[in-house]
Amino acid sequence: CGCRSCNSPCPSPFQLAALERQVFDFLGYQWAPILANFLHIIIVILGLFGTIQYRPRYIVVYAIWTAVWVTWNIFIICFYLEVGGLSKDSELLTFNISRHQSWWSENGPGCVRKEASMSDLKGLDNHSYISVIGCALEYRYIEVMHSSFQILIALVGFVYACYVVSVFTEEEDSFDFIGGFDPFPLYHVNEKPTNLLFKQTYL
């Protein structure tokens, strides 16, 4: 799919990247990123629809959204790197509803999850202490890489959107709304020279 005069590819990598991010945020019960990802998926579909159906306005909406999406991912990077007073251990991304953390905090590469029963302590018989050891990479760096990849994809999508809009604009400028792309309009009538008309009248 793509614009009418070029064979530009569909932005399927954008959708796959957004869906992959959504899956892992769902697994970690990160409600704020879940909502942001859901909105991002809708805007990506809107941009794809605008590309296929020749709707430049939809593509412009997608291009504007990429700036918002980049800003959001920069915030996520700052959150996990604890920049500007932010703390990765806070409940900000879960709207203070739960104390869940990133899914990667217990399921990262090389991580071993151990549960220690605390039934011997009064009032904690239904709880357990979870320790994670042996992680090859700390989960916050995995989240940072995810967000960095999303920023890269968003920048590529922005360039793609600007290119498609420019192509559509050039096509609209070259289109004759009366005669189409035909250099001779439909209402044009080929008039014969007057000398030929005189000859036909004489005959």
From TrEMBL:
InterPro entries attached to this UniProt entry: Na/K-Atpase_Interacting (IPR008516)
Keywords: Cell membrane, Membrane, Transmembrane, Transmembrane helix
Entry membrane topology: Multi-pass membrane protein
GO biological process, one term: regulation of sodium ion transport
Subcellular location: Cell membrane
Membrane in keyword set: yes
Record GO cellular component, one term: plasma membrane
Family, similarity comment: Belongs to the NKAIN family.
Descriptive protein name: Sodium/potassium-transporting ATPase subunit beta-1-interacting protein
Gene responsible for this protein: Nkain4
